[in-house]
Amino acid sequence: MRIRPAVKDDHPALCAIDSVAADDLKRRADIADWIQQGCCHLIEIEGEAAAYGVLTRHFFGQAFIEMLMVGTSWRRRGLAGTLIAHFQSMSSGAKLFSSTNMSNRPMQDLLVKAGFRPSGYIDNLDENDPEIVFYSPPSRS
């Protein structure tokens, strides 16, 4: 297993593991933009893209995990947690944020397990499903 920045040639593989990209041209374009911006990282296992994540700085200038996606056949193997730990190490000494819908309990549990704390919520993004913002304090190492 290796984690590396995604490159343009990875776009088809990342779209293939993304559960939204098959039916959403905007998501496909977002993935291309994230790759171009250099903020998309992927986990590669035996030469195959298994998961990807996006770390941006668009959230009030703070590091923000914008996306985590694990391919269906690679789920339940700790890859999302591995990406979170990777982003935490990239953000060492700085605040790190992420968010998820209130209805997405597995992601909430994953963030808490990784040391994140709830930091507030945002109404009106998705109807009747507030977005919970999570915060990982800066590491002191």
From TrEMBL:
Residues 1-139 form the N-acetyltransferase domain. Coiled coil: none annotated. CDD domains: NAT_SF. SUPFAM superfamilies: Acyl-CoA N-acyltransferases (Nat). It comes from the Bacteria. Gene3D superfamilies: 3.40.630.30. InterPro entries: Acyl_CoA_acyltransferase, GNAT_dom. This is GNAT family N-acetyltransferase. The lineage of its organism: Bacteria, Pseudomonadati, Pseudomonadota, Alphaproteobacteria, Hyphomicrobiales.
